[in-house]
Amino acid sequence: MTYHPKSEFMTVMIARGFLADCTDYQGLDEVLSKGVVPAYIGFDATASSLHVGSLIQIMMLRWLQKTGHKPITLMGGGTTKVGDPSFRADERPLLSAAQIDENIAGIKQVFAAYIDYAEGPTGALMLNNAEWLDDLNYLDFLRDIGRHFSINRMLSFESVKSRLDREQSLSFLEFNYMILQAYDFLELNRRYGCLLQMGGSDQWGNIVNGIDLTRRVLDHEIYGLTSPLLTTSDGKKMGKSLSGAVWLNADLLSPYEFWQFWRNTTDADTGRFLKLYTELPVAECDRLGALEGAEINAAKIILANEVTTLLHGAEAAAAAEATAREVFEKGGVGDDLPTFTFTIAELVLTGHDGQAGVSAQQMFMKAGLAKSGKDTKRLFAEGGARINDAPAQDPGQIFTSDDFAKPIKLSAGKKRHALVQLG
User: What's the CATH fold of domain 8-227?
Assistant: First the structure.
C-alpha cells in the first residue's frame, strides 16, 4: 500500500491490516477527512449468534466510531429470506420469519459490547432491511431497479462465476440476492446519508453493484471498502475450532472457551491478531508478535485477555485466565470450565449391580471434546484422554451415579478441558 491517508480511520485500517481493497482510496479518504461519514456493514441472521469470523467486521465498525464516524449495523431480516450465495457450493436452507427474528435478537446482544448506540452525530444505528424489502412491489421493483442491472456483468462476478464454473446450481432466488443488497445501499444512502459499505472481500461484487445502482438512481458518490478473508497461518478458516464454531454469544460458547480459543493462537498469527482484534498500539502488537519460544505464550495471554475483555468484560477475562492457570499449572478443576450436564434419563442400565451410568465415550462426546465414537477411540488410543487428571485408556469405562458425587473433569490433550455432572 503506497497511498498515505489523511484520515485517521484509513490510517488505522491500513496500519492494522484491515484493508483488502477500496473502490476509491483517495475519494473516500477526502470524505472521511471532512466530517462524519455514516458507514454500514450488513449481517444476515442465519444463526442465533455471529462467530469469530465476523469479529473483523465488528472491529471495523468500532474503529469507525472511535475515529469520529457513524456506524450502521444492518440486520438482514429481509435478505436472510433469500440467502447470500457468495462462494457457497449450495443453496442456504430457508428460514421462517420467526426464526430470523429470533436470530436477530441473539445477534444484537453482541454489538452493544463494541459499539455505542447513544444518540448523537456518531451514535450507531441498528437497522433491519426488512423495513424496506418486505413491502416491495415486485413489478415496480423490476421496472425501477432491475433495469439498472446487466446479467452479463453479474455473471462475471467471481462469487457467481466460481459456482457456475463448477456446474453447481444457482437458483433465481439466490441470483436476486446481489440486487437486494445493492438496493440496501441505495436505501441507506437515501434515508440516512450512508456513504460507505464495508465487508469481507467476498462481498466485493455486491458492494460494487450497490455503488453503481446508487450512482444511476440518485447520482450520489458513495464508496466501498473490504477486509481480507482471514485464514489462520495453517490455512484454516477463521472462526472454527476443534470443537466447532467459535460463537460470540456467551450462551453458545462460555467466556472461558472463548478466551481459550485466543490463547491457543499459533505463534505466527499472534502479532497479526493483536492488531486486528485488540486496541493495543501497533508498535506493541509488533513487539509482542515478534517474541519467540516460551515468551510468545505471554503475548497470547495478553491477546486472549484483551479480546475477551472487549466482548465479555474484564471480570470474565480475569476469571478465564485464573481458571486456565488453575487447570494448566496446578492440575486443578478451575471455577470457569465449561460444564455439561447428564440427566437421570440419559443414564442407561449397565449391568454393574443394576446401576445406571454413562460411558467415558459418551462423556467426551457430550462435552464436545470428541466429535464421534471413532474420534473418541483415537483420542484414547493416542493417550490424549484424561479423566480427573488421570490417564484414561478405556472409552467404554462406565461411570455410575455414585461417580458423579462431584463434577468429573475431562481433558483432551493439554489445552481442552470440560466438566460433566449429573443433574
Answer: Rossmann fold (3.40.50)
